[in-house]
Amino acid sequence: MRSEPPSLPVSSADRVRIRYLGGPTAVMEYGALRLLVDPTFDPAGDYPIGERVLTKTADAVVAPRDVGTIDTVLLSHDQHPDNLDSGGRAFVAQAPLVLSTPAARERLGGGVLGLEPWQVTEVRGVRVTAVPALHGPPGSERIVGPVTGFVLDGVGLPRVYLSGDNASVDLVAAIAERFAPIDVAVLFAGAARTALLGGALLTLSSERAAEAAAILQARHVVPVHFEDWVHFTEGRDTLAPAFAAAGLADRLHLLERGAWWSLDSTAPPAM
Hints:
The protein is an alpha/beta fold. The chain has helices at residues 86-94, 102-108, 141-144, 169-179, 206-216, 236-245, and strands spanning 16-20, 26-30, 33-37, 45-49, 52-56, 72-74, 98-100, 112-114, 120-123, 126-133, 147-153, 160-162, 184-188, 220-224, 260-262. Helix content is 19%, strand content 25%.
């Protein structure tokens, strides 16, 4: 049985607005907060990670100075350059609050608050719950490191799930037990793979993203982190067919880089 979270004060801003900036990066306006997800700002090129290299295929859509004022950064993890690059690190160092993993807190310090799975914090009337994520197959944690997702909610606010780099549908089911139905699911897709883990999925495939949406009873789905990197094996061309096959085509909002989507309007918010 799903336990109901305690009530929070009603926010005066009952909306969700998301601007997709490419890769995992998105600006989100939620309640009284303006958030940035997994900041990446570096240009296309090769980025070393240990003995491997990750290749980025597209430049950033905006510079950090053009993002605007941010109240909180939601950082799924800090150990991979496709989720936090050098430009993102500089941004995080100046951010008033960063929510991430305890490991990220140890490495980044500063304004980072490390949250364990299911730990809850409140930021200006918004409840943020860190939820579990697995960046690969079971047993891969020692190789890929810890990752977190987030659920945002509060009285009078839509409920939003951000998956982070999660490949596990079983964990999505555990999250759904506590929080479904979800109003907006921001799913890290792309079916990322690496030879380091034998080609196993590191993030949701298009089919798994559609399955996750169904499990979450998500009213709306905004995919991110499905393009701009060579290690993604699926992308824009596979997401729409997968959601259509699952009977969820009307829930999918597949954004172009730099585009806004709003829960309460299809028009972009004022800059």
